[in-house]
């Protein structure tokens, strides 16, 4: 059964979902096709995921497109991924803009060709005023890099005399992280059957619910996404508290509402 917005309360839905889109290569190999074929097929799943989140009213969707470790892959596969990235930016951004989606690319873009950096700039500029779904594409991104660049920004402020070392708090560091202006990460999904987060959103995922599925990314459709959301909704998020404390807090909230 595919979830509809009316089936569950908006309050119980995750505000921010992230997905590690794993399994493109294996999907293609199972069909005796080159790995690049799987990556191209995975674009269809990206479209479905964006449509699904927009329909449910989820605020932010973050997709792990290219990690800082993916440069180690075969040169022809990396080249294909770069070409696919440029193609998708060129062909899809107008559709995203038409559907009020705001596109943000997170990661260290300095290693990408100038032509790709320009496409990224143009795509972000076109959609920057949109008020619908926040679509974040992580490209040349790593969680350790994210934490490092945040720490460097704070160190620069200390060196310039704008703040003291004692001013470096968890909140101050959070403000320097990618997507600091968006809702906290609620649900992290990984397709493809592996049980790890692969250096993705290490800081942001501190209290996120984790969901792992054997479904390969090209096969991740609305049904599979619905199952992940349903699992999330069924869980009790405690944030370090006991279950009884959470129930008491909810009861007090209901009594005052």
Shape call: globular
Q: Based on DSSP secondary structure assignment, what is the total number of beta strands?
A: 6
- The CA-CA distance between the termini, in Å, is 32 Å
The helical percent reads 40-55%
| Count of discrete domains | 1
Average pLDDT, to the nearest integer?
Answer: 89
Which CATH top level class fits? Alpha Beta
Strand order of the largest sheet: 3-4-2-1-5-6
Secondary-structure arrangement, i.e. CATH architecture? 3-Layer(aba) Sandwich
Count of helices?
A: 8
Portion in strands: 5-15%
What is the chain-wise order of helices and strands?
Answer: EHHEHEHEHHEEHH
- Summarize the main sheet: 6 strands, parallel
What is the gist of this entry?
This protein has 257 residues and is an alpha/beta fold. The chain is built from 8 helices and 6 strands, in the order E-H-H-E-H-E-H-E-H-H-E-E-H-H. It is 46% helix and 13% strand.
């Amino acid at each position: 059964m595919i979830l509809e917005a009316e089936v569950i309360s908006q309050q119980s839905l995750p505000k921010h979902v992230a997905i590690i889109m794993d399994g493109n290569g294996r999907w293609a190999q199972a069909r005796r096709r080159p790995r690049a074929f799987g990556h191209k097929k995975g674009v269809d799943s990206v479209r479905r995921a964006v449509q699904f989140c927009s329909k449910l009213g989820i605020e932010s969707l973050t997709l792990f497109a290219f990690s800082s470790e993916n440069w180690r892959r075969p040169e022809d596969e990396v080249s294909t991924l770069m070409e696919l990235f440029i193609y998708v930016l060129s062909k899809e951004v107008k559709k995203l803009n038409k559907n009020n989606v705001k596109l943000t690319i997170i990661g260290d873009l300095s290693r990408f060709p100038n032509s790709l950096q320009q496409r990224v700039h143009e795509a972000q500029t076109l959609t920057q005023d949109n008020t619908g779904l926040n679509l974040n594409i992580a490209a040349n991104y790593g969680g350790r890099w994210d934490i490092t660049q945040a720490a460097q920004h704070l160190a620069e402020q200390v060196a310039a005399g704008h703040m003291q070392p004692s001013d470096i708090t968890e909140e101050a560091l959070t403000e320097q992280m990618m997507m600091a202006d968006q809702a906290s990460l609620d649900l992290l999904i990984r397709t493809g059957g592996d049980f790890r987060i692969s250096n993705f959103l290490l800081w942001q995922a501190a209290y996120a619910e984790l969901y792992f599925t054997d479904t390969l990314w090209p096969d991740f459709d609305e049904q599979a996404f619905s199952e992940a959301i349903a699992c999330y909704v069924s869980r009790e998020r405690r944030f370090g508290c006991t279950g009884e404390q959470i129930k008491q807090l909810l009861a007090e909230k209901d009594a005052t509402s």
